[in-house]
Structures are given as structure tokens and as C-alpha cells.
Amino acid sequence: MFNKIISIHGVPRSGTSWLGQIFNSLLNTRYKFQPLFSYAFKDAINIRSSKSEIMGYYEKLYSTNDEFLDQTKQIEKGYYPQFNKLNSPDTLVTKMVRYHYLIPKLLEEVENIKIIAIVRNPFEVLSSWKNAPKELPPELDFEEEWRYAQNRNLFKPEEYFGYEKWKEATKLYLWAKEKYPDKVLIIKYEDLVSNTEALTKKMFDFCNLEIDDQTLEFINVSKSKKDDDPYSVYKKDIDLDKGQKQLPKCIVDTIYQELNDTEFKQFL
């Protein structure tokens, strides 16, 4: 059974899949993909859940084998690697691109949890969303959706597409880091790309994990192999400035103007 929990958080198109697989590459972790969005655990906990209900959810999640939670089809297609694992890893890792509003509740109720929040600059997030057909259906007009993603989020609190939701999530991460500095680590996607091994060691140290050869091998392969599928974790030659070039200038200018003198400027 596990003795610690790591919850990875980031808005859609922030690099959470790659980050999740970095943690998944450890022998001593058990990784679960978007559990609260799965059929098995849809809305299993909420802001009114008790500590015992939350811990019961994590305990059941740890012992559940599920095609969605374990992303078996993604592994079969080669989008994600197949890693060697211990029979009973002591660390449960979850990846969350929804339900970030639960972060305060999790930090308050769960003693042995660490939050790793990844923030990608909003230009790249929006551009990546714009270019992912499954995430932005062709019938939706990006220039009408980029700010609120009203027809993608459908105003559901658990959904985090669009610029305003990027701000909401990022502000929440910053608050959480200030209140729970020993439980929350914020990383930048751009730093993970440019200095992967060093930042991985920093994250693992924060979570009391030890890097192993399988992780180092995955980092090397993921940065030396290219797969153009938007869901693949193999991303050789990532252009960190591509997003601005692909967005309408009026959107880029608006974002700069709105964020330039705010706490969000550090992520531009």
C-alpha cells in the first residue's frame, strides 16, 4: 500500500502528460490518469468530502486496474512507454487537468500529499489547444473561444480550457504554494523542456523520491524521438516560441497588456 500521494496539476495542453510519465517512469510509483474524469471514479470526491472519504477514494484508486486510469490503449499505440514496476509501489501519482478547485481541500485534509503544478505560458497553451482537434472541435471558432472557452468548458467548474481558466488555475497554484510551501511545488513547462534532468531531480527531491535509470532513459528517449501526435510524450525539438507565432496578433497583444504588471508576468 502507498504511504504518499503526488498530485500533478496543470490546465489542458500544459505538458502534464510528459510530466506524468516522468513520475510514472519510477519503479516505485503507481500512476493513475485523470481519476475524477474516469467512469470508475467520476466525481468520487468533492469539496464537501470528509478526510476519511478522500483517503478511501485514494485507497480504492490505488488498487483499481482500469483501461482509462492506466492508459493501456495509449501504451499499446506507442504514445506512452511501458515501464517496469514494483509489485506494491509506495507512491501513488495522479495526473489532473480538471478539478483543480479541489487543491485547497486536498492540502487541508491529506497529510502525505504533494502537489506538483506545471504552468506553461498562455500563448503556448492556447496555441496547443487550437491545434488539437479533439480538444477544439472544428465547429468552434477559436477567436470566439480563446478567452472563456464557453462552448468547450460549458461553464463547468471542473473544466479549465481557455485564457481565463489559465489565470484562475495559476492564481490557485500561487496561493497554494504560499500557504503550503512544503506541500506545493510550481514548475514552468519551459524549464522542464530546457533543463529536464535537473528539474526532475528537484521535483523528486521535493517528493522524497530517488531518480533511477529508467527515468533517465525515458527523459533521453522522450527528447530524442519525435511523434507529431498531440497526445504523444515524444517531443524532440520543441519550439518554445511557436505559440505566439501561431496566434492572432490581437490576442497576443491583449494577453501581454493584461498580464504585464501582474503576478502572472513570470510565466510569459
TrEMBL record:
Keywords from the UniProt entry: Transferase
Pfam family, one: Sulfotransfer_1
Boundaries of every Sulfotransferase domain copy: 8-261
MF terms in GO: sulfotransferase activity
Cross-referenced InterPro entries: P-loop_NTPase (IPR027417), Sulfotransferase_dom (IPR000863)
Family: Belongs to the sulfotransferase 1 family.
Protein name: Sulfotransferase domain-containing protein
Organism: Alteribacillus bidgolensis
